[in-house]
Write a structure and sequence with these properties.
Blueprint: H1 6-17, E1 40-41, H2 45-48, E2 57-60, E3 66-73, E4 76-83, E5 92-95, E6 98-102, E7 108-113, E8 116-121, E9 141-142, E10 151-155, E11 161-166, E12 171-178, E13 186-194, E14 203-204, E15 210-215, E16 224-229, E17 235-237, E18 242-244, E19 249-250, E20 257-263, E21 274-278, E22 287-288, E23 305-306, E24 312-319, E25 322-329, E26 336-337, E27 344-350, E28 356-362, E29 369-374, E30 381-382, E31 389-390, E32 397-402, E33 408-414, E34 425-431, H3 445-452, E35 456-461, H4 470-474, H5 483-495, E36 501-510, H6 512-523, E37 530-534, H7 540-543, H8 549-559, H9 567-573, E38 586-591, H10 600-612, E39 616-621, H11 631-649
Parallel strand pairs: 1-31, 34-35, 34-36, 36-37, 37-38, 38-39
Antiparallel strand pairs: 2-3, 3-4, 4-5, 6-7, 7-8, 8-9, 10-11, 11-12, 12-13, 14-15, 15-16, 16-17, 18-20, 19-20, 20-21, 21-22, 23-24, 24-25, 25-26, 27-28, 28-29, 29-30, 32-33, 33-35
Helix pairs in contact: 5-6
Length: 654
């Protein structure tokens, strides 16, 4: 048998690996149910943007027996309840709302509805049917009125009080209210957080006397742990050397606090955090647990969990775009893997004592669903069947390609239905957002859609991202959109070696991916035939003062300093200074109310492109921020992207 070599071997391996389709996708008609009872849908922009996304969050009861699920079922969005075990257990409507939090005895839940904090008995089925379509139902107690920005409720250990954040003024405060609604909320901590930074939650000590919280009260550029005495309202700073990356979590005895974080004197590693232990009785006592891996904070959405005996700490960790649950002794040492399910995990929740876990997980061909797993081990059990089956979705091919300096970058290749059947198709390089995050192994429906429309799509994990260790993330420190842009250019070279690519390659991305897409088109102008940059930063020094707090910290850390302190680092990332090198047609799109990547970037880029007489198109969206809220605007952006690439790259042909 003749051995395939070079390009032919790569192409054959890719085609064979991508040949399988998702079970159940092939035969049902549009809108029908598959054998699992899930709806089967065509890959259309209208379907993709119609909230067909499965559960958005879960909360496990303290005894691990029941699960609250935030989801939309048959068009009815709100909080549902079900048993935390048994794939066939019924999912029962509870009431409208979001962000459910169980009381310590499991008898009630706090939740947010209509912008206010409510509490209600945790009954389901007929006992909750009277809630109807109202915001909370007759059995619910409304705890706040006319307080703006209410979020992240936390019950006291005795269940009698609830702490939460609110923003009645220009900053966020911590408030406390009786769980029975017997008194008005009282402001416990003033100026606990900036108005535009809702990352952390209040954390009660086991004795209910103290709340730990993360604050920048000492320094705008720091996220320190503070303690407030609930009775007196007196606050004191607990940590000084760490940059918090999660909500603090008290040990069962209350003698230690665990949290994710990085050292202030090192790079602000995202998704590669230490787990710190802090003695709440000794300010400045923080120390990292020594282990061979790191914790993944996922932009501060994750947190650690203590075992009931305080001897084990559980945490999520992401490797090569795939999440799992891990455990490490409280004394440090070798961390070991609890789950091997992979994919993308969010909304991780645990029972009291962390004997049971629940989470929302999505995989390469599977939409978001709720799962549970016991700390004693075993395979996670899928608890819901809410996400649709997408017709034609196929698992991408995971591969590596050689970049400009000999390093290898991870990529995921999405193939058109007829790739390898004699047709040659245009190709796209997809550049993920976040910069220090990763392209995750979930459904990634945009790439699936573009592949279904005849594009060969290569989504890349460029240097500086997480999931490959800190040394890999260090490669981009002080070099934002430098080597990363060259990684994207090398991906274009790789795509052109594939026999089913027609020689035309485009590039696209949003947020940091939009920034890097345009940077790649100017640093490697001969590599791309069309560029779509969405919500990107192209003039970081000119927009810095308009960025929200999280974006400011991220930008300052990535460049090593403020724009005035290190202008050379900002010149590396300021693509507007290299727009004269742009050769490919360009489409820019941006939300006009964006605070994470301010609209100023779009305006500065458009003005410079006009001055240079470059060929480009641009479109902005009034009222939209960094993540578009209106489905019609998301559809419009996607349709413009697709049409632009078809116009400049062509379509599949023999």
């Amino acid at each position: 048998m003749r051995r395939l070599s070079g390009r032919a071997a790569v192409a054959a391996a890719v085609l064979l690996a991508g040949a399988g389709t998702l079970a159940g996708c092939g035969s049902p008609e549009r809108g029908t149910a598959s054998e699992s009872g899930r709806e089967t849908l065509d890959l259309t922009l209208e379907n993709i943007n119609a909230s067909h996304d499965g559960p958005s969050g879960v909360a496990l009861s303290p005894d691990g027996e029941r699960l609250a699920v935030v989801a939309s079922v048959a068009g009815k969005r709100g909080i549902y309840l079900r048993s935390a075990s048994g794939a066939d257990a019924a999912l029962e409507w509870w009431r409208e709302g979001s962000s459910p939090v169980w009381s310590p005895d499991g008898g009630s839940m706090a939740f947010i509805a209509g912008g206010d904090l409510w509490v209600a008995p945790a009954a389901s089925g007929a006992a909750a049917a009277s809630a109807g379509a109202s915001a909370a139902g007759d059995s619910a107690q409304r705890l706040t009125r006319e307080l703006a920005g209410v979020r992240d409720a936390a019950f006291s250990p005795d269940g009698k009080s609830i702490a939460f954040y609110a923003t009645p003024d220009s900053v966020q405060d911590i408030w406390v209210v009786p769980a029975d609604g017997g008194a008005e909320p009282r402001r416990l901590v003033s100026k606990a957080a900036e108005h535009d930074d809702p990352r952390f939650e209040p954390a009660w000590s086991p004795d209910g006397r103290t709340i730990a919280y993360v604050s920048d009260r000492a320094d705008y550029w720091s996220d320190d742990v503070w303690l407030v005495d609930v009775a007196s309202g007196r606050s004191s700073q607990l940590t000084r050397k760490l940059m918090a990356s999660s909500t603090p979590v008290w040990s069962p005895k209350g003698d230690r606090i665990a949290l994710f974080g990085t050292a202030k004197n090192e790079y602000w590693y995202q998704d590669l955090s230490y787990i710190y232990l802090v003695n709440p009785a000794a300010a400045g006592s923080e120390r990292p647990i020594r282990m061979q891996v790191f914790a993944t904070d996922a932009i501060m959405r994750n947190r650690p969990f203590w075992s009931g005996d305080g001897r084990t700490i559980y945490f999520p960790y992401q490797q090569r775009g795939s999440d799992d649950l891990w455990a490490v002794p409280d004394t440090g040492g070798v961390a070991t893997q609890v789950t091997t399910i992979g994919g993308s995990i969010r909304s991780l929740s645990a029972s009291a004592g962390a004997g049971e876990f629940a989470f929302v997980r999505a995989g390469p061909t599977e939409g978001a669903e709720a799962y549970s797993v016991a700390a004693v081990g075993g395979a996670p059990e899928r608890l819901t069947q809410l996400s649709p089956v997408w017709r034609g979705v196929r698992a991408p091919v995971e591969l590596s390609y050689r970049s400009f300096d000999g390093s290898y970058m991870q990529g995921f290749l999405y193939l058109p239905p007829k790739a390898g059947e004699g047709e040659r198709c245009p190709a796209l390089v997809m550049v993920h957002g976040g910069g220090t995050n990763s392209y995750m192994q979930n459904v990634n429906i945009t790439e699936q859609y573009l592949a279904s429309r005849g594009f060969v799509v290569l989504a890349i994990n460029y240097r500086g991202g997480s999931g490959f260790g800190r040394s890999f993330q260090d490669l981009a420190v002080g070099d934002w959109m430098g080597g990363q842009a060259l990684d994207a250019g090398a991906a274009s070279d790789f795509l052109r070696t594939l026999p089913y690519v027609n020689g035309k390659v485009g590039i696209y991305g949003g947020s940091y991916g939009g920034s890097t897409s345009l940077a790649a088109a100017t640093r490697t102008p001969d590599k791309f035939d069309a560029v779509v940059a969405m919500r990107g930063a192209y003039a970081e020094d000119k927009s810095f003062d308009e960025i929200d707090r999280l974006g400011k910290i991220f930008t300052k850390t990535g460049h090593g300093a403020l724009p005035s302190e290190n202008p050379e680092a900002y010149r590396v990332s300021n693509t507007v200074e290299r727009l004269d090198r742009l050769q490919a047609p360009l489409l820019l799109m941006h939300g006009e109310e964006d605070r994470r990547v301010p609209f100023t970037n779009f305006k500065v880029a458009v003005a410079e492109l006009q001055r240079l007489g470059k060929s480009f198109e641009s479109h902005s969206y009034p009222g939209e921020g960094h993540g578009f809220r209106k489905p019609e605007n998301r559809i419009d952006m996607s349709r413009r992207l697709e049409t632009f690439f078809q116009q400049h790259l062509g379509t599949c042909a023999r």
